[in-house]
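Technical annex B. To support the medicinal chemistry partners, we prepared a structural model of the target in complex with heme C, based solely on the information shown next.
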Amino acid sequence: MKTTKTTIVLAALFGLVGGMTTNALAAQQDPSVQADINAFQNYFKNKFQHLSLNDFSKGPYAMSEDKRLQFDAIMEFPPFEDLVDKGEELWKTPFRNGKTYSSCFSGSDKTLRTAYPKWNSAKGKVETLEQAIVNCRVKNGEKKIGTGKGKLAWMSAYLTGIATGEVINVIVPKGNAKALAAYEQGKKEFYAKRGQLNLSCANCHVDNPGQRIRGNTLSPALGQITHFPVWRGKWAKKKGDGFGTIQRRYGGCNKQVRAKPRKRQKAAYNNLEYFHTAMSNGMEISGTEYRE
Ligand code: HEC
């Protein structure tokens, strides 16, 4: 508590009062959300006692030594570096009006990834980083771009790369009933059984991490978002360049249980991403990674 107070005092001294900065500093986690996070993380820590918190970010590759070696070998020469460089170039290229993406955000680019999805009080809804980037384009007179892959995924991957080692801190502001309701909806989406197979996200990624399913090893839900957008071999074989955002992945998992994917950047997935990301609070962003 002491540090928070000091930071607020310092912010005031430097004339940063008002606007986003004060709100961001003042925002405190809703206690019921914090209790969920603790229970969620303790469950996985107990189930896999040999793993440290940040180990969970390696997903299926944290589940076996063999898989981890394969992963490490691929990550020595990541197949996606050129695209992340393109993402950086796009991010840094000014719009036709001379403004940049960074101008739409407060704080350093380096920590943008860690605070999203974010509760947007003005709009009364959850905003993902991908959506905030699209909104920034529109505000500056540029066209919308798709949020599943392509340019937006590369820019987003660039932001994930520069956030490596920064700690995830998604906040459901205390005393904000609307934000809590959005979080609760996301939680419900995560635990609700769906599709012809009648399975929830939790059935696979909470109850059965480490188990094999159709040739894949299931990852634990804890730490699933520390490295998104990911570059997937499977996606590279299809149309596209291999990159996909977290919501593209949600769609793939919905399809696996023969449920219809939700629309990207609408309430159902945004609230799911809000809950899903908050569960990994305190973990480090691990940078863009390879997945099968
Ligand atoms: C039938 C089991 C199943 C269900 C249900 C399921 N998934 Fe998955 N999911 C998989 C498999 C298999 C993979 C690929 C291996 C892995 O990373 O777990 C995967 C991968 C993922 C990944 C990528 C992890 C990474 O590190 O690349 C995320 C994120 C994810 N699932 C989230 C979800 C969410 C959210 C839901 C619910 C909407 C869900 N999954 C439902 C089987 C499932």
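Notes passed to the chemistry partners:
The CA atoms of residues 74 and 290 lie 7 Å apart.
The two ends are 42 Å apart (CA to CA).
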